[in-house]
Amino acid sequence: MYYYRYENTEVSCCYKYLMFSYNIIFWLAGVAFIAAGFWAWSEKGILLDLTQVTQLHGFDPVWLVLLVGGVTFILGFAGCVGALRENICLLKFFSGMIGFIFFLELLAAVLAVVFQSQVRAWLNEFFLANIKAYRDDIDLQNLIDSLQRMNNCCGAEEPNDWDLNAYFSCNDTNRSREKCGVPFSCCLSDPADSVVNTQCGYDVRNKPKKEWSNDIYTKGCIAALEDWLPGNLYTVAIVFIVISLLQMVGIYLAKTLVTDIEKARFSY
Questions:
Q1: Three-point CA angle 159, 165, 166, nearest 5°
Q2: 27-79, pLDDT tens digit by residue?
Q3: For residue 154, which of 203, 211, 207, 201 has the smallest C-alpha distance?
Q4: Cα separation of 62 and 40, whole Å?
Q5: At 48, phi and psi to the nearest 5?
Q6: At how many degrees (to 10) do helices 138-151 and 61-84 cross?
């Protein structure tokens, strides 16, 4: 009877090391994200003067990198140590946090569908706020440029949104060379150009509006996103399903390991 209970209540090495292998990848990914975030801040001199963090007017993409890295690092650490040390508290913390994140993802998806107009208005306000801060942060600038080039768009609703930026404003008091222009990422791309012309958007908005389409994209990025989504629903759905399956596998491994540990501890 003693050997029978031992054989059926032993902690499964298979689940234990599967759980460890599953989490070591996320732990290393978290370390990489955190390192990349601090490297980006060091390049901008923020680590030498942390007060600069509070002086940023727009969205700093480094915050998102550090947030994702921090959460991934903590979960990976909890999963790895919990599996190796057979620590029930860490394993329950891991599965609970994964479940909570999965719930937030579902909630965000439902709210985005139900409140489409409000989400669109929020995205528009968010984009306009970051247009104002375009020159304040190099990472934000690169993010907006990438978004506009990838989606062949300019501004939130239209190119005139760039009038909100002090450098591109058509205001009479503006003495910038970029006055009444748009960033180079708004310009029509030419595959034959081997060098990016960063001055291609200068003075574009001084021309009659009907001529803008000869030089720049005239569709706003919010509209471009709305056009992109219906044609890529399968891609979005596949990504969501893959992420959900990975989360479910993590929860399953953690729950199974907790059950094995509890059986082994309380069987004697």
A1: 135
A2: 999 999 999 988 887 776 665 555 555 555 567 788 889 999 999 999 999 99
A3: 201
A4: 7
A5: -80, -20
A6: 100
Structure tokens at 246: 């990975």
pLDDT level of residue 12 (50, 70, 90 thresholds): confident
**pLDDT digit string (tens) for 228-237?**
888 888 898 8
Contacts 24+ apart (CB under 8 A), 54-58: 56/133, 56/136, 56/137, 57/132, 57/133, 57/136, 58/129, 58/130, 58/132, 58/133, 58/134, 58/136, 58/137, 58/140
Rounded to whole angstroms, the Cα distance separating 205 from 162 reads 10
Residue 175 and residue 117: Cα distance in Å, rounded? 38
Q: Are the C-beta atoms of 127 and 156 separated by less than 8 Å?
A: yes
Q: Phi and psi dihedrals of 187, rounded to 5?
A: -70, 150
User: Rounded CA gap, 110 and 112, in Å?
Assistant: 5
| Interatomic CA distance for residues 200 and 258, integer angstroms | 61
Q: Measuring CA to CA, which residue among 241, 261, 264, 254 is closest to residue 99?
A: 254
Polymer length in residues for the chain: 268
Q: Report d(CA 268, CA 266) in Å as an integer.
A: 6
| Confidence grade of residue 24 (pLDDT, cut at 50, 70, 90) | very high
